[in-house]
């Protein structure tokens, strides 16, 4: 959420940034000017009326003390009291409307973000490694993994439905090995603290990171008594909200946390996309990286977080590229996002495996996460950042497709062998 005073004082800038995102400012800002003006007028009249009421109350006391008739002053006080109640309700309704408008305004893209309307206008920043060379036609993961007996989509449909997966034997061990490898790398070498959060969160948590109200259709809602709980779409939600409504000690910043959780997404807007394999699932596992930073350091921390995610792929020997998302392709909460895209030879394309974003104070303002800078009397909002470090299922896909052999087996990268206890995945039946 953007600051009300900032939007009010910089409305032309906000409108221009919305146009850079490919959005119609009038559709997003709606009646912001009118509501803001009416709200301020109501508050001003309310304060004036309260001052008049207080003065009238003093006059009543004087008249009664002097034994004089205070009827007119008492009648005025009653009228003012009723008017103040009306104004309080009006101001409250307008304030709620204003917060609704502010909640629908996306973050403003950072000045370094390329302007564009779609993913085709994203800008490649760098590449690492080389794509593997095969003397045979590489297979996509769904075909190869099914032949190896390590991925079972048909039984998953029987158990639950489409877009779920069952992993067998070394397929399951590869998934577990990847998550342990990633957590060890981030905690032992990159300085993150591991946290295991709940997989169900309340609506306040979803609002704090920007999933609600905009993306309710993409979430799994779980009615719970008279309130709703939500299956987390990413560990970003519970981990960021750990510090909701708290004031952080500035000496602790930056705080770097990592978490391994399942993620649940309805994929409401993806009908017909990636229907084969496990690229787009209703349930998948992910290792998440989350940072809380001082504002002046957040873009340095953004670069570090992205490099930390990249190192996972480097240690696994997987070819990838990093792109800066353009204004029209960024998520609404982000001020700047890098996507890390992994090369998948079985599909002959790059596929996003991590999005690393700086949200600046956008999420912190919604979740009320602050710190008190040294030498200042007022608190300020921290900057929040997060990124996948990495999406485990898509890393699993990348290993299967990049390390496949002519005989149909899959070589396990050396970095994972201590975790999985094998060097190669070969055919088994279950």
Q: Average pLDDT across residues?
A: 96
User: How big a fraction of the residues is strand?
Assistant: 15-25%
Class by SSE composition: alpha+beta
Helix content estimate:
40-55%
Domain module tally: 2
Side-by-side strand order of the widest sheet: 1-11-12-13-16-10-9-4
Shape: elongated
How would you describe this structure to a colleague?
The chain is α+β, with helices and mostly antiparallel strands and 430 residues long. The chain folds into 2 domains: 4-103, Serine-tRNA synthetase, tRNA binding domain (Helix Hairpins, Orthogonal Bundle); 119-425, Bira Bifunctional Protein, Domain 2 (BirA Bifunctional Protein, domain 2), CATH 3.30.930.10. Helices cover 40% and strands 21% of the residues. It contains 14 helices and 18 strands. The strands form 5 sheets. Strands 1-11-12-13-16-10-9-4 form an 8-stranded mixed sheet. Strand 6 (220-224) and strand 7 form a beta hairpin. Helix 4 (32-65) runs antiparallel to helix 5 (71-103) and helix 8 packs across helix 13. The longest helix is centred in the N-terminal third of the chain and has 34 residues, at 32-65. It is elongated, with a radius of gyration of 27 Å.
